Amino acid sequence: MQALAWEARNHALRLLPGVTPTTTERRLMTVHPPTLALSLLLTSITLAVVLLFSAREQAAGVRLWAMALASYAVSLIVSGVGSEATLAVRIFSANMLLSAAYALLGMGLLQFREKPASTWLVWSPVGLAAAVFALTAGNLPLRVVLGSLILAGQILLALHLLNIDQNGERGRGRPLIATGL
Fold first, then answer.
1. Is 13 strand, coil or helix?
2. Environment class of residue 156 by beta-carbon count within 10 Å: exposed (0-12), middle (13-18) or buried (19+)?
3. Alpha carbons 70 and 74: distance in angstroms, whole number
4. What is the pLDDT of residue 34?
5. Do 129 and 101 meet the contact criterion of CB atoms below 8 Å apart?
6. What is the predicted pLDDT for the residue at 154?
7. CB neighbour list of residue 62: distance below 8 Å, 6 or more residues apart
8. Is there a contact between 133 and 143 (Cβ–Cβ < 8 Å)?
9. Whole-number Å distance between alpha carbons of 52 and 169
10. H-type alpha helices, the chain
């Protein structure tokens, strides 16, 4: 069956002028990191602006989510713009902004779910990340592992905050937010 599908594909490619299966194989799309970063940046800025302008007084937490997206966008800008001389400062700053974005997301979830804000629980990973990055400045592998664990912990915390005191509510919001994390 797979051989038939492959033959049909090759036959269809032969019908296109100047295209053969071998030239098509060479045209495979590759990932271009600057383009990917730019698309993430533009998407984040667009979503932050839309959320900020559409936030109403009754939409608790939406402004914090917009700030989280803006913080993420600024972290992309900071990490990508600058010289080699400022690389260490840019990496530190971008990681702190990313950690702050997850903290803002957590605060927004607490506001949205109308839970008492346990600020220390949501913001302590930001301070921990700052300490880890300062103490492991000379050890890149350890810094990458610990930084990744802190960010993963923040995502798990956000998922926990999303699901606390769930009392059978139905809707699409919770699964959509969880999927985005």
1. helix
2. exposed
3. 6
4. 82
5. no
6. 93
7. 51, 54, 55, 56, 108, 112
8. yes
9. 26
10. 2-15, 21-26, 33-54, 62-80, 87-112, 119-135, 140-163, 173-180
Name residue, tokens 């260490």.
88
Enter the tokens of residue 2. Answer: 């797979």
Say if residues 157 and 136 touch (Cβ distance below 8 Å): no
Say how far apart CA 107 and CA 115 lie, in whole Å.
10
pLDDT at 132: 93
At residue 51, the 3 state secondary structure works out as helix
pLDDT tens string for the chain (181 positions)? 555 555 655 555 555 555 555 554 555 667 778 888 889 899 999 988 988 888 766 566 788 889 999 999 999 899 888 788 788 888 899 999 999 999 999 998 888 777 776 788 899 999 999 999 989 988 889 999 999 999 999 999 888 887 776 665 665 565 556 655 5
Instruction: Provide the residue type at 153 as one letter.
Output: G
Amino acid at 15: L
Tokens 């966008």 map to which residue? 73
Query: What six digits make up the tokens of 114?
Result: 């109308």
Neighbours of 3 (CB within 10 A): 7
